[in-house]
Amino acid sequence: MPVLRFPDPRDADEDGLLALGGDLHPESLRMAYGQGIFPWPHQGMPLLWFSPPMRAVLDFSDLHVPKSLAKERRKGRFTFTIDAAFERVIRSCRRSPRPEQEGTWITAEMVRAYVLLHRLGDAHSVEAWDEDGELVGGLYGVDAGGAFAGESMFFVQPYASKLCLLHLIDHLAAQGVDWLDIQMMTPHFAALGAKEIDREAFLARLARERARGLRLFDPVDPIGLP
Most buried of the four, 18, 43, 67, 174, by CB within 10 Å? Predict the structure, then answer.
């Protein structure tokens, strides 16, 4: 059963924790992302929902592509697709080791929930394939009603996930989008030009983007909700 209502995201505590409990029903996730909220499971605890006091975003006008990454892009070693292998991407992200983290927040329940969200047209992936047709990198995230929230990335060949990100940015820019929600800052995104803005500024930006009514991706074949 979906969550009926979330608290105001401005009421989150100093760590960004807003609510406990509920489930990962597609309508719960749609409501959450539309309000700038995202789930972050912690082992042994009810499902946690967050709205951080500082939000990391990447404005495309601030994008810095390092010389090494630009050089790899010019080589054209990979082929890129969108929504060609969502489930493989999220499962690969789940298996991908995270520095200074034990295990992963992408639980089996999260995988099932986001795969369903993808089939309903709200979650999307970018894939990188090598010359042999092997999946060597990817990322996935959620369309929050015209704004894209990145979730996770993986790679098995150097630069594959970073080039997927550039492919995503090119795609979103072609749809009229000029920024990306990356939720939490990382050294990788900081090097690309990402910045942090406060919650109030982020929520205002999200509301403006949703009001534009942009379609970010081609529709998928619809399925019914469980």
Answer: 18
Q: Compute the mean pLDDT over every residue in the chain, rounded to the nearest whole number.
A: 93
Terminal alpha carbon distance of the chain = 9
Contacts of 224 (CB under 8 A, 6+ apart): none
Beta-strand pair 148-155/54-59: unpaired
- Cα 174 to its chain centre, rounded Å, is 18
The two structure tokens encoding residue 79: 């082929």
Going by C-alpha positions, the residue among 56, 54, 51 that lies closest to residue 17 is 51
Three-state DSSP at 199 gives helix
41 Cβ partners below 8 Å, 6+ apart?
Answer: 47, 48, 105, 107, 109, 110
Query: Position 177: which residue type?
Result: V
> Token match 């995201």: residue?
9
pLDDT reported for residue 224: 46
pLDDT digits (tens, 9 = 90+) for 113-154: 999 999 999 999 999 999 999 999 999 999 999 999 999 999
Structure tokens at 97: 């080791």
Per-residue model confidence as pLDDT tens digits over 47-86: 999 999 999 999 999 999 999 999 999 999 999 999 999 9
pTM: 0.93
**Cα–Cα distance measured from residue 22 to residue 3, given in angstroms and rounded to the nearest whole number:** 6
